[in-house]
Amino acid sequence: MSLIVHHLNNSRSQRILWLLEELGAPYEIKQYQRDAVTNLAPPELKAIHPLGKSPLLEDAGRVIQESGAIAEYLCENYGGEALVPARGTDDHVRHLELIHFAEGSAMTPIILDLYLGRLGEAAAPVKPRIDEQLGAHFAYLEGELNDAGHFIGDSLSAGDIMLSFPAEVAAMGGAAHYPKLAAFVAAMHARPAWQAAREKGGAYFVF
Ligand SMILES: N[C@@H](CCC(=O)N[C@@H](CS)C(=O)NCC(=O)O)C(=O)O
Questions:
Q1: Is the distance from the beta carbon of residue 66 to the nearest atom of ligand 1 less than 6 Å?
Q2: Where are the beta strands (DSSP E) in the chain?
Q3: Does the beta carbon of 55 sit less than 6 angstroms from any atom of ligand 1?
C-alpha cells in the first residue's frame, strides 16, 4: 500500500481520511497524539515535514503537505471523475475557490479566535474585529449552501469535504445561529465514509 496519512488525533487530518474513504482508495494511517498539556503535535511529525503539522500525505516516498493540495492530489490521482466538477465548467472554478477558501480564508478568524481566547482581557482591543470576521465568514458559508445541501452541485464534492471543518466550528456555536451549516454537518457525519474515517482516526472534536 503506497498511501500513508500522517494523522494527528482530533485535527483537520480527519478530512483526508474521510476523502480517502469516499474515494475507496487503500491507505495506511500513522497515528500521532497531541500533547495533553499544550495540544501541539509531537516532535516526531517534524521528521516527516519541517513544520511538523498534520495532515501529511506520503505517496511512494513523496510527502505532500496542506489539506487542499492533498485533496486535489488525491482526487486527481486516485479519484477518477469523483468529487471534482468537470474542468472548464463554472462549477470547477467554484471548486477551486472553495478548496482554497477553506484554509486560506475561513481558518484565519477561527485560529485568531482560538488564540485570543487565551488572552482574556488583553484581547479586548482586537476581539470585536475578530468576532465580526468570524461571523462574516460563517454567514458567507451559510449562504453558499445550496438546496441540495452542498456547496457545489447536487452531490458531494471535495469542496464539501474541505469546508466541513469550518462548518463544524460554526455548528459548535449552536444550530440556531447557522441552521444550514448545522444540517450540512449532520448530513456529512451520517455518511458511511465519514463514520469509517472517524472510526479509524479516533477521537474528533466533540463528534
Ligand atoms: N493549512 C494547514 C494547517 C495544518 C495544521 O495547522 N494542522 C494542525 C492540526 S488541525 C496541526 O498540526 N497542529 C499541531 C501543531 O501546530 O503543533 C493544512 O490544512 O494542512
A1: yes
A2: 3-8, 28-32, 56-59, 62-65
A3: yes
90-191: CATH, from 3.40.140.10, 1.20.1050.10, 3.30.2000.10, 1.20.120.350: 1.20.1050.10
- What is the pTM (predicted TM-score) of this model? 0.96
What is the per-residue pLDDT across 130-181, written as a single tens digit (0 to 9) for each? 999 999 999 999 999 999 999 999 999 999 999 999 999 999 987 789 999 9
40 touches ligand 1 (CB under 6 Å): yes
Give the pLDDT confidence of 30-73 residue by residue, as tens digits: 999 999 999 999 999 999 999 999 999 999 999 999 999 999 99
Count helices and strands in the chain by DSSP H and E runs:
8, 4
168 lines ligand 1 (CB under 6 A): no
Span from the CA of 185 to the centroid of ligand 1 (angstroms): 21
> End-to-end CA distance of the chain, in Å?
29
C-alpha cell recorded at residue 97 = 475557490
